[in-house]
Amino acid sequence: MKVVILGCGRVGATLATQLEQAGHTVTVIDNNTEAFQRLSSEFQGERITGNGVDESVLRRAGIENADAFAAVTNGDNRNIMASQIAKEIFHVQKVVCRIYDPIRESTYKGLGIETICPTVIGTNLIFQAISETRP
Amino acid sequence: MKVVILGCGRVGATLATQLEQAGHTVTVIDNNTEAFQRLSSEFQGERITGNGVDESVLRRAGIENADAFAAVTNGDNRNIMASQIAKEIFHVQKVVCRIYDPIRESTYKGLGIETICPTVIGTNLIFQAISETRP
């Protein structure tokens, strides 16, 4: 399967390595070339420097033949816009978008984009851990 | 149960409201008074302005009688240090610490502090979502 990942932070870089190790062909996009240093030294996939909300950059990353796209930059808006482009213009089958802001997350969840909100997940996990305590 | 939360960002503020609604007594600490604006208007708990790695601030927040402590500021080091103080000096029964850096998380997990790493959780969730795709 071909996967395009936007954002080479901790999550993007780890995801790229894990997906490649699972046998997928992975391309990573970041607007900062230094970010690619986070990739494992064994990573064989392509690195594209550019702005992920720019269609020509996404095309260079092979989005037209991608089966999956993950938007994991640190910017919620950038992730949302790039996910919409991947889904609506390039018809990528699986689009996953990280959104930190729970309000924006619930809005875009309704628009057919699979969203992951670390804020909500983290809050729920901590709530559960504390609720289990017996004083 | 008495709970002290360090950090009134999105996670801290939501957690405070959820725990209070679940019947717990909650105190929130943040070094920036404006952060308390994130709290729900119904939140009745105490707000303490100060540095959460300062023992006197933790005492003002009632840490000596707390059953649980959650460190959810945006700084990994601050969360780690405050959690260690809560556990080792004040013997709080349940201490939960958010750590963004997976390397630091695995180090401190071994030291008896319950850690939550949104980076690892997010990566795993996106990996699973993409792995389920059938091209």
Automatic annotation (TrEMBL), chains A, B:
Any one of the GO CC terms: plasma membrane
Pfam family, one: TrkA_N
GO molecular function annotation: potassium ion transmembrane transporter activity
UniProt KW keywords: Ion transport, Potassium, Potassium transport, Transport
Superkingdom of the source species: Bacteria
Matches recorded under InterPro entries: K_uptake_TrkA (IPR006036), NAD(P)-bd_dom_sf (IPR036291), RCK_N (IPR003148), Trk_Ktr_HKT_K-transport (IPR050721)
All residue ranges annotated as the RCK N-terminal domain in the record: 1-120
PANTHER family: POTASSIUM CHANNEL PROTEIN 2-RELATED-RELATED, TRK SYSTEM POTASSIUM UPTAKE PROTEIN TRKA
Protein name per the record: RCK N-terminal domain-containing protein
Organism this protein belongs to: Reticulibacter mediterranei
